[in-house]
Structures are given as structure tokens and as C-alpha cells.
Amino acid sequence: MRQIALPLMLLLVGCSEESADLPAANDAGGSADTSAADSSAEATDGSGAADTSGSGSGEPEQGIISTESFPLPESLPGGIFIQPRLVCSAPVAGDEPAAGDSICTYTAISACTEPGRDFADYGRCDIVRTQRPYSAQPPVIQSDAADPRLDDPAFQSELAWVTSQVKACACVCCHSSALAPEGPSDWHLEASAIWTDSVSDDGVALLAGLVDSSSFGAYPPEQNFGFERVRTALPSTDPDRMKTFFLEEYLRRGNLESEAAAIPPFGGPLVTQATFEPRACAGSIGVKADGTIRFTGSARYLYLLEIGSANPGVPPNLDTPAGTIWRVDVAEASPAMRGALTYGRVPVGAAQRVPANGPPRALTVGEQVYLYTLADVGLPLTRCIATVAP
What we know:
Elements: E1 29-30, E2 86-89, E3 103-106, H1 119-122, H2 125-128, H3 153-167, H4 201-207, H5 239-252, H6 269-274, E4 279-280, E5 282-283, E6 286-287, E7 292-299, E8 301-305, E9 324-330, E10 337-342, E11 350-354, E12 368-376, E13 379-387
């Protein structure tokens, strides 16, 4: 049986609750645009793998592109998802000293800095806001000047703790009037004396962990200063305490916990993309034994996956599904791959993410693989089952 051989020398070793999607008309194929195909581009010799030499937040196993892999553009390109980086800085004036020389924080919407510090001082909100569609949206505030919680020391103590947890995490980049450049996106910390009054009932259910928001992605606590985003939508160093706070608020408003079961998972297109079922590639779209991979349009991400693999999602934990055979990413400042490339050969301006070292495995004629490309994170283009053709 014929296989695709891969010489080692060929390798280069986006704050709202929903994200936009592209039409899925070309999921099964169509006519690939190969007018500017990069399949013959010169390959370079770096690994493109994540650099895990940072400190402070714990080190990533996968899903993080470091500044060493792709230099961060001095001016962030508009309309492009900027992948998370681990950025390190000394404590700002007035903050407690760091345990080490610096505090290292991921620039990701699901990331947090050290408890008691402000994410805005140690992360990069300008990067975070590229990772979700951000727009200003005034909330509906349901406040009452006679609210007894205003004079309840126990409640105020819990509210202060929740507020400090929000400030330590990247959610604050879109949910603070002091930080969001065009104004906050719906609920925000300055909305009222009890800012949680600006959160909708469905939003409170989400923050309480009564609604699935896993499609947004999450870091393991050991890589995120102890913050977990599994049991509640807001990352927390004490998820049970966070859950209790927002569950009590949900019930206080006259809702029943059982009613939250009717709220669909949050994530919009990210949810539908996760459950997408691919069909066979059509026309010229697919994979050939000479290594040619043809796809639709201009892609910043290309995957070949084993049949049955999950659909790629968002970083840090959903963008490299188990079963990924080969993954190529284009640097944010580089033009997208257009129409075609050669298996195992990475164009200039891109990097191989999987495998981390060495060539991808050989493909066998007649073998089926899942071809998945994206115009950007959360914007799928080609999603189809390719049979390796002679």
C-alpha cells in the first residue's frame, strides 16, 4: 500500500456570550481557490511548539502559542483572534510583592492572575477582546434603593469577594466601564451599588454553573493561579462559594433551580460547531497521496484529524482535540493559507502545532481523515471527511 513519506527537512518544527460563525455551505467541499496556494512555500526549521519556560501561572501542556513561536505584533491586526500568550511583569506599585521575580499571566479570556490582583494590571485586555466579539451593550439594572442587602454586612462581604474574583480574571476586560473602550458589554462592576443587579436571570444561572458554558474553554487551576472555570462560568478559587452566591441570587429573584435546566448551553455557534457532523468531501477538496491538501477559501488554521475526533474549539483546552494528526497555524501578522498546501510542509509565516516535534505520521491511500480548516478561531470553512486519493 502506498504511503505519503515526509522528509523531516520539510517541517517547520478573538467578550460577548456568543461568537460569529461563517455559512456552512462549503463544509463538504466545493471548488478550492488555489490561485495563491502555499504548497510550494519554503519551509523553515523551527518547531512552532509552545514554549513552556515561563513561570508564575503554571506551565501549559497544550493549546498555548508563546511569544517565541509567533512574535506578538506591535500593533494588533484588526479582526483577527490573537492567540493567548504568557506575559510576565513585576508587581505594580501598591501591590504585594510576588512570590518570584514576576507575575506571569495568560492573555486569554478564560485566564486569571493571582488572587487579590487585577487582571488589567498583569494581562492584556486588548488581546482578550480579540477573542470574543466585543460590543458595548447597556444592561437592564434591577436595583432598589431600599434593598436590605445594602446594609447586610454578610452579603456585602460576599459581594466584595466575588468582585475581587472578577477583577482578577479576564472577564473584567469587557465587564468594567473603566476598561471596556466603547463601554461595558451588558453587566458590569460599576452598574450599581450591587452590580449583580445588572446580570439577567439567565446570566445569573450561567454564573452559578446551572447552565453549561464549557464551549468557552478553561484552564486547569494549576495553570491559572488556582482559578477553576468548570463548576461556575466565572473562574473562581472557591467554586463552591461562587456557586452558592449566584444560586442564592437566582433563587432570591423567584426562580427555581430546576427551571435553569431549560436554558440552552451558552456559546452560540461554538456549541453548534462542537456538535457538527461532517460529510464526505466533494469536488477537488480533500487529500491526495502526493501530499496535496485542497480546501475552501483562506484559512488561518488547518487540521487533519482521525475519524471520530472532536471538532476543534477554542483555546486553551478545546483547540487541539485528541486524534489530531497534523495542525498548522498562521501567525497573526501573516496572510492566511489560500486553497492548498502540502502535507508535512509548513509555509513561511505559519507553524506546525501538532505533532510538537518531527513529521506527522504517514497517510495511507484509501485512509479516511477529517479535514478541518478555519478562517479564524470559531469561523470554520472546510469540514469534511477526506479519503486519501492516489
